[in-house]
Amino acid sequence: MSRLLVDGWQVVIGIETHVQLRSKQKLFSKAPTSLLSHSPNTRFHAFDAAFPGTLPRLNRKCLDLALRAALALGCTVNERSSFDRKHYFYSDQPAGYQITQHYSPFAVRGLFTPTKLGNSIRIKQIQLEQDTAKSITNPSKKSALIDLNRAGTGLLEIVTEPDLRTPEQAAEYVRSLQELLRAVGVSDGNMEMGSLRCDVNVSINRPGEPHGTRCEVKNLNSVKFIVAAIEYEISRQRRILENNSSAEVLQETRRFDHDVWKTYKMRSKEDAPDYRYMPDPNLGTLVFSQEHVDSVRRGMPSLPASTRSRLLQTYSSKGVTERDIEVLMNLDANREIPYDGAESSILGAVAYFEQLCSRNRDPKITQNVLGQLSALGKPFSSELISVDRMGEFIDLVVAKRMTRPSAKLLLKQMLSRPSNAPVNHLAAEMDLLDTDPPHHKTMSANDDLVRDICLRAIDALPSEIAAIRGGNQNVMNKVVGWIMRETRGKVDPNSAKTILNQLLR
Ligand SMILES: Nc1ncnc2c1ncn2[C@@H]1O[C@H](COP(=O)(O)OP(=O)(O)OP(=O)(O)O)[C@@H](O)[C@H]1O
Ligand SMILES: [Mg+2]
Ligand SMILES: [Mg+2]
C-alpha cells in the first residue's frame, strides 16, 4: 500500500462516466439518434425540443442496454426505480431540466475488476438520463447556436466509489470500462466522438486520516486528459496543504484546459446550483421483473475477462501468448460500430480469429497475420477481408509462396481494395508469388541477383548514394525502398542493405 503514497499523501479518486447508449432512437422520443456528421437540427422530435404539451415515451431498447451494463458490472438491479427532473437553466437544455434518476437509480452496488488492476472497484450506482443539446458559442458575436440532434439521447451515468488510488489506475479503469461496454454492445464508447466522457473526483489525505475534500474535474473526453487532470489536481492540492498547515482544499467543480494542461475553477460548493430535484410527474415507476432481467442476462455476449481466459486456455498450447491475445482484443477497438443492426454480419476480431482457427489455420500464424493488420494503421473490419480470403492469404504465407515484404504488400492491397477474387490470383497479378520457389528462396545475401539490383540502384540514385557515402545512413532506407519496389518485395531488405554496404565500401 505504501508504494501508492505520493510523498506521504494518499490519493483518492472516484469517477463518474457518462456513456451514450447505442440505440437508434432517443430515450424518451422516437427521434433518431445522431452522429457528429449529421447536419444540425435534423434529428429531433417535438418532445426533444420541449414543445409544450409533448410527453415522454420510454424506449425499451435503451432499458435493455442499461440492464446489460448493470449486469456486466455486477450491479444489483432494483426492481423499482424512478425518474427525476434536475433543473438548471442553460441554452443547451430546452426544457430547463434534465430527466435523470436522482433519488432511485435502477442499478446499485456493482463490482468491476479492470484488466490490469489486481483489485476490484466498487460501482456505487448507475442511472439512466438524457443527454443535452449542443451549444456552439461565439463570444465575439455574443451569440450561441443550438443543435438539438443530441438532445434527449439516452445516457448512463456510471459512478464508482472512491476506490481508485493513482492516475494510472484511473486510466486503466476507463479503458477497461470502455472495452466492457463495447463488448456487450451498450455503447460504441468512442471518447473522441463524445460517447464516453468522464468527471473525475480527486482528493488527498495522510494515511490513517479521513479522505480529503474532493474536487471534481468535469467532462474529460480522453484518457490522456484524465491522467493529466488528476496529476495536476494532486500537485495543486499538495501545494495548498503543504504551504500552510491550517489551509484546506475547498470543494470545487473544475474544468481541464487542454491548451495549458491545467485545471481551473468553474464554481465553488457555495455557488453550486440548486437543482431542485423533483420526481418527474410524466413518468411512472420503472419496473424490471426478475424474469426480464434473467432473459437479458441469458442474451449477454461473453465479457472481455472471460474471453481473455478462454482464448488463453484454448490457444496457449499452440504458442499464442497473453500479449498476442491483447493484440487480438485491441485490433478492432476503434472500429465504428453501426447503429442499424448491420453489425450482426460484421465479425469482431476475436470471432474472426476463432473462425480461421476452426478452419484449420494455425493459431500462432493467424494471430501474427492479424497483428500485422494493426501495424498497417487501418482499423480492421471483417467487411474488408472475408474469413475465406484471409484463410487463402494465410495458406500462401504458410506455403512460403511469398517473401515477408511481398506478403505485407499483398495484405495492404487486400485491405484497400476489398474484393472476392481468389487471393492467389491477386498475388499473381501483382507478381508477388514465387513461381519457382527454390530459385527465389536462394535470393539471399550472396546471390548475384541481389548484387545486380543493388548495382542498378547505385546507378539510378546517384545523389542518394552520394549522401550515404557522405555518412548519411538514413538515406539507405530510401535506396532499399527503391529496390523493394523494383523487385516487388522479393528481396530481403536486410540482405540488400548488407550488399549495398559492401559495394559502397
Ligand atoms: N473524498 C473523495 N475523494 C475523491 N472522490 C470522492 C470522494 N468522495 C466521493 N468521491 C467520488 O465522487 C463521486 C461523486 O459522484 P456523485 O454522482 O455521487 O455525486 P455528484 O458529483 O455530487 O453529482 P453530479 O456531479 O452527478 O451532479 C463518486 O465517484 C465518488 O466516488
Ligand atoms: Mg454524478
Ligand atoms: Mg459529479
Automatic annotation (TrEMBL):
The keyword Ligase applies. This is Glutamyl-tRNA(Gln) amidotransferase subunit B, mitochondrial. Belongs to the GatB/GatE family. GatB subfamily. GO terms for molecular function: ATP binding; glutaminyl-tRNA synthase (glutamine-hydrolyzing) activity. It comes from the Eukaryota. Its EC number is 6.3.5.-. One of its GO terms (biological process) is glutaminyl-tRNAGln biosynthesis via transamidation. GO terms for cellular component: glutamyl-tRNA(Gln) amidotransferase complex; mitochondrion. InterPro entries: Asn/Gln-tRNA_amidoTrfase_suB/E (IPR017959), Asn/Gln-tRNA_Trfase_suB/E_cat (IPR006075), Asn/Gln_amidotransferase (IPR018027), Asn/Gln_tRNA_amidoTrase-B-like (IPR003789), GatB (IPR004413), GatB_Yqey_C_2 (IPR023168), Gln-tRNA_amidoTrfase_suB_CS (IPR017958), Gln_synth/guanido_kin_cat_dom (IPR014746). It is an enzyme of class 6 (ligase). Subunit of the heterotrimeric GatCAB amidotransferase (AdT) complex, composed of A, B and C subunits. SMART domains: GatB_Yqey (SM00845). It catalyses: L-glutamyl-tRNA(Gln) + L-glutamine + ATP + H2O = L-glutaminyl-tRNA(Gln) + L-glutamate + ADP + phosphate + H(+). HAMAP family: GatB. The keyword Nucleotide-binding applies. It comes from Collybiopsis confluens. It is found in: Mitochondrion.
